[in-house]
Structure formats: C-alpha cells, structure tokens
TrEMBL record:
It is a single-pass type II membrane protein. Coiled coil: none annotated. One of its GO terms (molecular function) is glycosyltransferase activity. It comes from Vigna radiata var. radiata (Mung bean). Pathway: Glycan metabolism. One of its GO terms (cellular component) is chloroplast. The chain crosses the membrane at residues 26-44. Belongs to the glycosyltransferase GT106 family. The keyword Transcription does not apply. The lineage of its organism: Eukaryota, Viridiplantae, Streptophyta, Embryophyta, Tracheophyta. It comes from the Eukaryota. It is found in: Membrane. This is O-fucosyltransferase family protein. The keyword Membrane applies. The gene is LOC106766682.
Amino acid sequence: MEGVQGRSDKLQGAGAVNPRSRLRVWFIRACSSIVLWTCLFQLVTVSELWRSHFFLGITSRIHHTIQSPLQIHNELVQPPPTFLPPRNYTSNGFLRVSCNGGLNQMRAAICDMVAISRLLNLTLVVPELDKKSFWADPSNFEEIFDVRHFIDSLRDEVRIVKRVPKRFSEKNGQTTLKMPPVSWSNEKYYLEQILPLFDKHKVVHFNKTDARLANNGLPFDLQKLRCRVNFQALKFTPELENLGQKLIRILSKDGPFVALHLRYEMDMLAFSGCTLGCTNEEAEELKRMRYAFPSWREKEIVSEERRSQGLCPLTPEEAALVLQALGFGRETPIYIAAGEIYGGERRLAQLRAAFPRIIRKETLLANDELQQFRNHSSQMAALDFIVSVASNTFVPTYYGNMAKLVEGHRRFSGFKKSILLDRKKLVELLDMHQNGTFSWNEFANAVRKVHERKMGQPTRRRVEADKPKEEDYFYANPYECLCEGSKCDDLLGALNSSQIQ
C-alpha cells in the first residue's frame, strides 16, 4: 500500500504546475502572438504595396494596349447604356410595317410608326425595309440600324418584337389586314378608324408608311417621341458608325469642310425630268427610266419649265457658281455626299476646277473598307448622312428627304449651319449672271442676300391649312424637341416670320 500511495503522490506532483511557471508560459505565448501578428501585418502591407504597383504596371500596359488604338480612332469604350424599365400595358395587337422609299424616307416613317404604336397601345414588329424601289437595296433593318438598341431604348414606351408570334401568323389561320394609312393623318384618324381594325384583325400590316402622320396639330408628347426615335433610338450599326467617324476624322484634319449633297443622280433626274446640261442621248435615257417606273411621273415634262419653278436640283456647274458666290474659297474641302453623279467626271469638271479639293468617300477609304457596303445604296447613304450631320457647313442642291433629315439633325445639334438654297430665286440670278445682266459682284451679293435667313437658324414650322405637302416638314424642323414650353419663344425669336397660324 505504501508503494501504491507513493506512486500516486509522485504522479500528482508531476501533474501539478507552479502558478509562476504558468504565468510565464502565458506571457511568452502572448508576446509570440503579438510578434507574429505584427510581422504578418507588415508582410501583408508590403505585399499589397508591391502587388498594387506590379499589377498597376501590368494593367496600365494592358489598358494602353487596348485603349490606344481606340483613342487613335476616337472610339472610346463606353459603358453599356442604361434603359428605363419596360412599360406595362395590354397590347391591342401587332403592327407590321413595310417602309417604302430611300433611307431617309424610311427613317422618318419608322419614327412615325413608333409614335402610332404608342398612341394605339400596339406591339410594333421591327420594320421591313424597301427592297423593290429604284435603289433595289437588299439590306434588312438590322444591317443598317442597331436593332437591339432600337428595341431596348424604346421599351418604356412601346413593345417591339422581331417577328409576329406564330400563334398570330397566317399559317395558323390568323388573317392579316394589309393597307396603307391615309397620308398626313392626325391622332383622331388613328384612334377612330385604325384602332377598331385591331379588334377583328390582331395583326395589321401597313404596306406604305411614308408621310402617314401629320406634321402639326399632334400632342406634344407624341411629337417628342418622334424626336426621341429619330435622334436617339435609330442608331446605325457599329460598323457604319465607325466608318462614318473615320471619314469625319480624315476630313477634319485640315480644318472646316463643306458637305455638298449634290443630288445630281440618275434617279433624281429621271424622276424630276430635269435635263439641263445633258446630251440628247442622256435626256432620252432619263425619259425611258421615268416611264419604266409606274410610281414616277409618266406625263410629259418640260425641263426648262420645271427649272424655272425651282423644281430641279442644281447642276454641278450651277453648284460651283453658287458656292463661290456664298464666299467659299478655292481651298475649301468639299465632300460630295451623293451617289454616282450622272455624266461622271465630265459633269464634275467645272466644280472640280473651282474647288480642287473635291472629296468622296470612295477616294478616302480603301476598297476593302467599303466593300461590304457596296451594292447597298442605303448603307452607303448612311455614311454620307453621318458625314453631312457632322460637317461644318451643309449645302443640299435639292430639298429631298436626306436634305430635310440632315437639316433636322443639325438643328438638334445646336443649329449648325445648313444653307438651304432658294432654287427658284437662284435660277433667275444664275441666268442673269450668265447672260451678262449681272456682274459677278452683283450676282454674289444677291445670292448672299437671298440666303441670309436660310442658314438653319431657329424658326417655327410654316403651317398651311389643309395643305400638308406645302408645310415645313416636321423632321426638318422639329422645334418642339429643341426647346421646352415658353422657352421656345425665346429661342425662336421675335424676328421670325414663319409663325404657326
């Protein structure tokens, strides 16, 4: 027993720890932990500093590698746009539209169709573009415009889909009503005559869309929506935008430039019947073309009469004299915003002699850059549109759809100078100068005086009661979108003579 008791006492003695020793161990452990945590903190701090400098160098080099070409081409990376939430509404049906005409005629029509869809609470199907007109452009909507941006940027106003759902297709027994709306119609027409059609036909197809909405007398919010579509939602594809911006950069390197919309093209001359300066063979060719298109004028046209009425585009020779009279110098770069000029270089000779720095997109860009856009007249027109809007001065020789929409965009961009030629008056002045009645100085002074108030200054649209075709065009001067409420009066000024009646 004594042996057992002794072993037990030894074990208890071995297990017992002196309180002073326990305190010493705790102190050593605490100090060690503090030292270790301090070292670890210092190590992390140093490593973070090193890592930040290291990765900053790498990322800055990557950023420079990626961004430099974009900065060189003025294509800075933009954050993705933020869009408003979709508007929640019960759709009354699907509106299909087939646009007719050239690029800018179709562009205005698309804006109108969005506004009509919003007014009637419809679902708009992405518009179909004209492929059968003179230009025979096979381009679809998404080959000219950024379709995703178009749909998303308007989703708080109108629901837009790429196609009619299968359950509403004609293959499933659904009838589609095809019709052209009445031209220059107001909201009452669409609410009272068009909206009821969707009760019977859930899908209505407008097979013509040009000028189907009135210029004036529409609610303010509807007019604002037309502008929103035109100036924000209808963006060209990135490929077109990038190439258009490249043209602008090249043209701007040497200072201000003029965009001359020289509408002396085969289709315009055939349609208008204007043949000044053409050979007899060319005049006959244009006449045959006019008769080949049933939608164009088939009656006999006397070219001289149309010219005296101001209904002909200026010839290249006339354009040269007018530009000189307006004060543009010989060294002014002149960008020809147009397709192929009828008569080619022979007809451009006098203009080129007066302004040697005649420039076209075909001479500024390499063949491979333009290749994908060739044989697509609307896409080529889009490039001219981009350059014309950005030019220092825009001069159209015919007041057609492109001239009108470019004018509107330039007003929206801060009333950039657009010289809107008074062709009827110019014909008189040109003839007086060329027959010796007016000296050059008299001619130049008269030309400048006629156009003092035709430079794209702020003004109200002219309204002609019951004569919408004679009114100022909405998209040329969408003044509701350029100012707010009473501020319009301050902007438009007291000197304006074109007042709303």
